[in-house]
Write a structure and sequence with these properties.
561 residues, Rossmann fold, Ubiquitin-like (UB roll), 3 domains, 8-stranded mixed beta sheet, 16 helices, binds zinc ion, metal ion binding, exonuclease activity, RNA binding, RNA-binding
Length: 561
Amino acid sequence: MTKQTKASANDELVFLPLGGSGEVGMNLNCYGYGPEDNRQWMIVDVGVTFGDLSTPGVDIIVPDPSFLEGENIRGIVLTHAHEDHIGALPWLWSRMKAPLYATPFTAFLIREKLRDNGVRDVKIIEIPIGGHVDLGPFQVDFVTMTHSIAEPNGLKITTPLGTVFHTGDWKLDPAPVIGQPTDIATITKMGDDGLLAMVCDSTNVFVEGEAGSETEAQDGLIALIGSLKKGRIAVGCFASNVARMVSVIKAADKAGRRVALAGRSMHRITAAARHVGLFNDSQRILTEDEARHWPADEILYLCTGSQGEDRAALSRVADGSHPFIKLGLGDHCIFSSRVIPGNELPIANLQDRMADRGVRLYTEKDHPGIHVSGHPCRDEIKQMYAWARPRISVPTHGMRRHLMEHAAFARDLGVEETVTPRNGDLVRLAPGKAVIIDEVPNGRLYVDGGMVVTEKGEALRERRHASTNGVLVVSFAMDKRGRIVSDIDVRAIGLPGDEVTPLGDALDDLAERVEQVVGSLKNEARDDDTVVEQAVARVLKKASQQIWDRRPIVETVILRL
Ligand SMILES: [Zn+2]
Ligand SMILES: [Zn+2]
């Protein structure tokens, strides 16, 4: 073991969020140790966030890791297998190229994810539950937490300049259905020994009370599913919440129903859970073929797509296009999940389509108790500070308002120092007072058509522009003397016409304007395609402004004869 116990004179311990601070999603946190010009790093989590209506065609957004390229990275530690913590590995690992450390369930899913995306030669080191890893100046202990996924871990990071507790995502669940409850003894011991800093989940800081136990959700589901005697039942939940799956299966069992899985991630996660022994098939899952013919009153479908995702199982059921699930009048759909901010519209849309088929809906709003959050509410956060007693509080995993409220709350609880970095803020945790000492390059990268591009990239900007303004395509031929020697063809994409201004008339008018403007150009200007294109674009944008009050993209194709 290369255990380093003493700090050198210029050594510093720094914390740097590159994603996840000031947003929910895309977690990428870095710890650095050493003198400013020779730091060693460990990375915690490499997650994604998802695109929305403002990013047409872009589903996956990842943090910009350019600061880390060429740095001495000792290892990448993954706290748990949620997409906002591991989802960016296929896109970013090659820019960090450090070994990965994770507990078995997380490691299984990472291995699959990298393989599916063709990323090879990654060293994945499986750490047992409660295990330890030596990453140079960082001695890392995995601390068992409870959350809404199998094997959530906090990290006790011991350095010569002090110990940091990185909580990861957590809540306090004394009866988590699967896995062990929170390792309170280790956390309390950190407090007893003197904890330098705690980097802590802020998601539910505005919510009073406690998140509630997975066992409560199980009881809620048993009661609701048991009360629905007739008709088919579909339950939507996150596949990664293995405890919830187990609870739904148990509820189905008690109600005399057999379970069928719908959606790729349901199968993927059950395979992972089986692999690590979290899932025993006491009640065998129906095959698709069996599900097709099973009596309606004796079946329950566990489905992906509770967030209204387009191609997921529930959406296809709502469209009537699912290969083996047909729901209609007298059937039921239970949403054992919350609405993730940003997904309100697609979820409402999904529920409308489902209701339109005659399916009855059950959500946590009208049936409290069929879902519990995976993140700590105020009473739990308070309890955590009472156990860990850090000198410095560093809120993470939240929007700006969550981080600021978390810091204020920590001060109320008597924490000496708080620091609330934004993505890219480099915080010195030790020696001395916690302070932001630098801002490093940061931002978002978009996965667009399988390529990783900057958020200011031209392609997305053009698509956005085209989606509101439309496109005009102009083509004509010119001879050696710069005269137009063909018809001028103007085509519109996404621009309207009506009875007063038929589209054909508008395009004829635009063609005339092209003829005029090209004719008005000087001889040498007409020889230069770029000059001609610019002149055409200028005149057509101006004319479009008059016709449609829009400035479409103008694409000019000149054929030189
Ligand atoms: Zn998270
Ligand atoms: Zn999580």
